[in-house]
Fold:
Amino acid sequence: MVYKALLIAVDQYLNTSPLPNTVNDVSEIKRLLLEPPSFFKKENVEVFQGNIAKRNILHSALTSFFEDASPNDILFLFWAGHGFLHNNEGYFVPFDGDAYNPEDSMIKMTDVRDLIDHTIASTVLAFFDTCHSGAIARNIQHEMVRGLEVKGSGKVLIAACTSNQWAWDRNGHGAFTDYLIRGLEGEAADANGEIDVYNLYSYVSKKVAEEFKDQTPVMKSTLTGKPLLLKRVVKREGQSFGTSPAIETKIVNSSGAYFWLGDLTCEYDEYREPKAGTYELVLKNPDSKTERTLKLMQQNSGQYALSVRNFADMVTIENIRVESQKEDTTVTITLVSLGDYSSFTFPEMSINLMGKRLSADDIAMLRVRRILFGEELPRYDHSSVLLESMIINPSNAKIQVISNLLRILKEKGYTMEQIRGKVVEQLILTGTLQEIEDLTFVVENGVIKKVCLQGYRPKYYANVEPTKIEINESVNI
Structure:
């Protein structure tokens, strides 16, 4: 019995947006497959990524992988990249895929399914983290019902979503692959530390469904016989499966005493609004670098984004007053609001995409998820390109949309309170939300595990109440 793996990460494209997270996906899958104790040997694990992931190369690799197999081989296929649906036909998109000519430039999901059907290998395990990947599972003999035990040899296809759904990305991985990795690392292991294909699917499917209501993994199989093991997990000394180390939990539901003014962030001692549109921040004994930065900002006469508590506005620095008494220095910053750029706030547009109407509020939710988690959308036709533009270039924005803000700021070493303040700035000054009712991070051992948001969209009409935006998201940032 020989275990062989073909891992495909289509991270670069000639004709559409790149998917750099797919390289992370494949690197982690490869590491986990080869990590001892393993059934896979390095020489039997092949990886395709970058500009070598062209249609002809991938088609040839897939054909030889399945047609040259021996009866006792166990084949593991993983594909991460864009998926495309055209005339109800699902396609995997290679590096040189062209949405205007999918039949000649892409790989039909049914062609890959046929290769799996006809191979003489005893067992095939195939995982697809692409949009519309559920199309590959059509017409397989048996659909797995959750709750049944998967046994023995045969063929299993697990897709990230149904044929008419998108597969979401976040936290440096596709969501489907993220849970696949966690499952292979041991979270899908049984009491003996062993992972069979059913336990893995059950774990991944449950986790993805809990996180995304509009992404449903699909499993089809023809398995028979005893359970098929994917990987054994070795217990560390003194540990057993089902136990966890001590967890220190922190709830961050305010920005504390931190403020942001442009790229400057530090703590204030007092904050007040002496009159409408005027704000004062009082700093006690700020360091010399902060003082110099503030003076340079005032000299430049620039316009800056201000974020404090649950509030954000565009301001100019009217005055900086420094008072020194013995060993104490007090700096008072007076800021003046720029007000609205125009006397009228434009209602945002809706759009029709793949036969589905997305309202301005739907697009705002996509923008919130882009800002918080960096979620990308596949782009193939004119309507999806327009949708992408509406997400990153909102009509009433006062600042540029920043994607994947939580991860970017955390990697730069900012505190959770500082990160929260910057998120407030992004959500309000991009015109996405007008008011934030609640923004809470649940942090475990320094890792953001949950993000809760409740806020209201701008009110465009006096007789129409603003829409409430809510997020309750499990993450790992």
